[in-house]
Amino acid sequence: MALAMHKESLSNKQMDSSKYVRYTPEQVEALERVYSECPKPSSLRRQQLIRECPILSNIEPKQIKVWFQNRRCREKQRKEASRLQTVNRKLTAMNKLLMEENDRLQKQVSHLVYENGYMRQQVQTASVTTTDNNSCESVVMSGQHQRQQNPTPQHPQRDANNPAGLLAIAEETLAEFLSKATGTAVDWVQMIGMKPGPDSIGIVAVSRNCSGLAARACGLVSLEPTKVAEILKDRPSWFRDCRCVDVLSIIPTGNGGTIELIYMQTYAPTTLAAARDFWTLRYSTSLEDGSLVICERSLTSSTGGPTGPPTSSFVRAEMLPSGFLIRPCEGGGSIIHIVDHVDLDVWSVPEVLRPLYESSKILAQKVTIAALRHIRQIAQETSGEIQYGGGRQPAVLRTFSQRLCRGFNDAVNGFMDDGWSLMGGDGVEDVTIMINSSPGKFLGSQYNTFPSFGGGVLCAKASMLLQNVPPALLVRFLREHRSEWADYGVDTYSAACLKASPYAVPCTRPGGFPCSQVILPLAHTVEHEELLEVVRLEGHAFTPEDVALARDMYLLQLCSGIDENAVDACAQLVFAPIDESFADDAPLLPSGFRVIPLYPKTVTDGPGATRTLDLASTLEVGPGSNRTAGDGQPNNYNLRSVLTIAFQFTFENHLRDNVAAMARQYVRSVVGSVQRVAMAISPSRLSSDMGLKPLPGSPEALTLARWICRSYRAHTGGELLRVDSQAGDALLKQLWHHSDAIMCCSLKTNASPVFTFANQVGLDMLETTLVALQDIMLDKILDEAGRKILCSEFSKIMQQGFAYLPAGICVSSMGRPVSYEQAIAWKVLDDDGVNHCLALMFINWSFV
């Protein structure tokens, strides 16, 4: 009986401790203070809380624990509800946007159906009533003229000082812009890969059958319309090819808007074409529904209004009615419609470069999509969705990116008003040398942070045409395998300009020192289409005289366009030396590469064309050139791109000629390296015959294959390959296609082992190519355990000839972990029995 009563008492206590407790406001306030400091307190912390807060003394520790659990659950539910509300608002706005787009497309279809019927009726009527070909042609042409060609109405010349005349132009521009943004004035075709969605960049389309180039985009951002308008008006902040925007006059209008007369200069993308400028009228106003409109067009004699004076270094381009429609969104945010419509005067550029000035897709990537991405980036930075390391503010990092791009564009263009002048050549015009004895004009206040020296800045630049080389793939290779083209001595000289006592003589050495790079991410844009990073160049010295020069250096690097799925995107790699302090106002002298795709309508190359083409024979300027009868064959590969290289160096006046000779020689060596890389990574060359080429600095591939197989048989007693013929061709072919990863590395006592050969599977495992293989050190791909095992077995390998290594993990050149079940290492002997290299075979490997 007593035992039963004791059990009942314990049961009642357990029920009391587990039933609901009503907390007083004071108790809740005390618990909330602790929760704000530590949402998940430990058992000791909860007991301490009960002791320190008398108002909680009547609460059991278990109840305190339950309160914190419930509080964390409520916080999680609140965040999830807020996220779902945000997604719902985006989906609602996107649904509205898509419905409007659907209505616009239906109107466009109706218009085309009506136009098609009208043209058929006119043609049939003309064919019945007359047999005159000229009459029939005139009827057809009259129907075609009704197609959208964006005719610009002719207006009498209007007085620049007459606000009424300018307002009339502004209202006409507004009407034409709105007809393109939301109407059917232009036949828009959606770009491939630009699917709408709450997290997508937006709906992007380009024009078809339209005069000039035109692109259109619409999307959602979480910024208010006034903030969006402020950002979009600051064109140099998001349009990387914009050199300057000068507002020469501001005229307020009676409806609360403003009219601005603007002169804008843009950079040329390559050294082979002139830059463009625009003389425009920009009209900012608001509509009855609360939407903001910023529309713009060029002022010419045909449109009316004042015409700006021409500039000697620029070609005047025309901006047809373009602009931004910014509509407020329910629940906050904005819906943005962007239209860019320009005529870049394509006939003034060499024929080979005309695709750059004829592609609406390139306009969409460089201008329209860039504007949307920039606004979206700022919106996410404002909301705190993007976290940056290194303690840098997003605005500072954006400024670094802008300065790198601007400095590289200044170097490529070399404007005379910035102080650039052409330097005489050496008789070969493949590399252009320009000097600037007053670099403060283009470096601005940043020049003051450079160490004082009596000289200036020298730029060596060149352009070349590439065929069958994807721009994204080439730039990614240049970024990840710097030692394939860069010279450590030149990098050392470039970095010396940041020191108080720069080197007096350029220290270039063929091949430089052994050098490896470490890429440290700094920032990236929302869709990772642009990467800002710090590159540490680690120098390795193996002789006493090299120790003073072999040191670590740092580069600030901007990489963009390396996504192979991007359509008509320019790929670019720009870098500038920095010191270890890396202040926000650090001086930057950018150099780098830019690769722009070209898609000509016909192909002028024969079947035997090489991967790099000479531009000298294709730089005719005019309406067209004669082509051979065999041009434009469908089997000719037509993936072309233009590569622009520019390197900048500081110099002292008494060493100007020496620096110029060094720069010219260096750019030529870089061009040669890029040509070799282009040949290696070209998709049409990624075949087994790549492995049949002799390797630099090693015996012929056939001989090496024989040494590898013979040494394996001698040391292990087994056969590496199963071949009936002992011919070298058969051995090499079997070795190249072996199912396991086989690779060779150097055996030097004074240097780290470097890979010299790998079969196809080995290249796949290392995620590299034969060209870049010699940039990879053995100790860089092995983890710590693998290095220890190899070191412990190395003496056994040298004495016995081989060793079996246990399963482990290694790392590819791209940083991906690779697991393998077993590895075999053996030394490869040449015909004289001398150690030639170390061979490794990784069995049953796979990416983790």
TrEMBL record:
CDD domains in UniProt: bZIP (cd14686), homeodomain (cd00086), START_ArGLABRA2_like (cd08875)
Signal sequence, renumbered to the chain: none
Alphabetical UniProt keywords: Coiled coil, Differentiation, DNA-binding, Homeobox, Nucleus, Transcription, Transcription regulation
START domain boundaries: 159-387
Protein's cellular compartments: Nucleus
MF term (GO), any: DNA binding
Chain residue ranges for the region called Disordered: 130-161
Gene3D superfamilies the record matches: 3.30.530.20, Homeodomain-like
Pfam families: Homeodomain (PF00046), MEKHLA (PF08670), START (PF01852)
Residue intervals of the Homeobox domain: 14-78
Biological processes annotated in GO: cell differentiation; meristem initiation
DNA-binding region: 16-79
Biased composition (Polar residues): 130-152
GO cellular component: nucleus
Family label: Belongs to the HD-ZIP homeobox family. Class III subfamily.
Name of this chain's protein: Homeobox-leucine zipper protein ATHB-14-like
Native organism: Durio zibethinus
Gene name linked to the record: LOC111275368
